[in-house]
Amino acid sequence: MRGLARAVALVLLALYGCATPAPEPKPAPVSKPARDDLIVLLPDPEGKAAALSVTHGADQRVLSAPYAAARIKEEGRLDTVDITPDEVNRVFGEVVAALPPRPVSFLLYFLEGKDQLTAESQQVVQQIFDEIKRRPAPEIVIIGHTDRVGTVPYNDALSLRRAEKVRDDLKNVLGIPAEQIQVAGRGEREPLVPTEDEVAEPRNRRVEISVR
Amino acid sequence: MAQRSFGVSFGLLIALTASVLISTPAPARADDVGQIKVAKGAVHLERSGRKVPAPVGAKVQQGDVLVTGPDGSVGIIFLDASLLSVGPSSVLAIDRFVFDSTTNQGAFETSLKRGKLAAVSGKIAKQSPDAMKVRTPAAVLGVRGTEFLVRTIEPGD
Question: Could you report the predicted ipTM of this complex, rounded to two decimals?
Answer without folding.
Answer: 0.81
